[in-house]
TrEMBL record:
The keyword Signal does not apply. This is dCTP deaminase, dUMP-forming. Signal peptide: none annotated. It is an enzyme of class 3 (hydrolase). The keyword Cytoplasm does not apply.
Amino acid sequence: MILSDKTLLKMIEERTLIIEPLDRKQIQPASIDIRLGNTFSIVEDSPTGIINLEKEIQYKTITSDTYILLPNQFVLATTMEYINLPNNVTAFVEGRSSLGRMGLFIQNAGWVDPGFEGQITLELFNANRCAIELKAGRRVGQLVFAKMDDTALNPYNGKYQGQKGATGSRVFLDYEIE
């Protein structure tokens, strides 16, 4: 079940859902707007030109209120908002159609697990032929919340728990179960 603005407001007031900073204008009928933060990370060039999933990937991270995203460039960014989901609520990250129509693709794997706490890292890609100026504080997407049928048996406590800023891939920490 998708949560309404009325339910979201009640959860925020009760502090069972934490989103900070939050302006009441961000609360929409069935979602909460998220804004672009001020940290951006790009993958460092490797000597081989190949990213190896078993090794830690190096990133260059900058803090700035403005970032120029060049055509066909990929950058990690972060939300201004720090969130803390209860163990019975999940969230979906959705980009804004207005930005997609400019060629700015906003993603983050699209899913936030119950129990997650931290800023959300966004993957941004400029599919346009022109550069796009990104500014901290601008609305870039929205979180749509859904209540689960029960509390999660194993709420999120993974490698991105508590992240702040544009956090690079930690895929090298994965392991295979054989």
